[in-house]
Amino acid sequence: MSTLSAYRRQILLFSGAMIVTVTACAREQRNDTEAEITAVERAIDGTIEWAKTKDFDWLYSIIADDSAYLEVHPEDVVVKGFTEFKRLEEFWASPDFRAIRHEIRDLQITLSRSGDVAWFFCMLDDINEWQGRPASWINTRWTGVLEKRDGKWVMVQMHFSNPVEG
After folding, report:
1. What's the number of domains the chain is made of?
2. Which of 93, 74, 42, 72 has the alpha carbon at shortest distance from 156?
3. Non-local CB neighbours of 106 within 8 Å, separated by 6+ positions
4. Range of the domain at 83
5. What is the pLDDT of residues 101-137, one digit of tens each?
6. CATH number at residue 88
7. Which among 102, 104, 113, 149 has the fewest CB atoms less than 10 Å away?
8. 42: in domain
9. What is the Cα–Cα distance from 129 to 104, expressed in whole angstroms?
10. Beta strand 70-72 with 152-161: parallel, antiparallel or unpaired?
11. Is residue 166 part of a domain?
12. pTM (2 decimals)?
């Protein structure tokens, strides 16, 4: 066997090994990205789902515990900071408030290149009652930003708005 044939064989073996390695790495990265997107989806859903059981520990584990937290509501309500967010607990904990169900539609999540920030858009139906009367957000546009802190996705900003009719 000539030296040239042995050299070609080594190149082919090396090239094959590189293709297998690159393919495995790409598959692993895709699996990691899918797992992160799933974790972000759970956090997004949890910011609404917690209300059914009034599980404040769950809610507070999802909301960023700092002064930079921001939440904007359609009713011209702006919540700035975790401390102000917690002041709303009295409303949510009231027996007059009852969460019935919610539906998130058309959820679009984008993960940053660094993998530690995600932003999203969706449509939300949040069906609730206050003192037995409907108090719901229907066809509400919902956008937000989450950040991965200490291995956990937390909401740092949310914005809710209703389409203008007509």
Report:
1. 1
2. 72
3. 121, 122, 123
4. 3-161
5. 999 999 999 999 999 999 999 999 999 999 999 999 9
6. 3.10.450.50
7. 113
8. yes
9. 18
10. parallel
11. no
12. 0.80
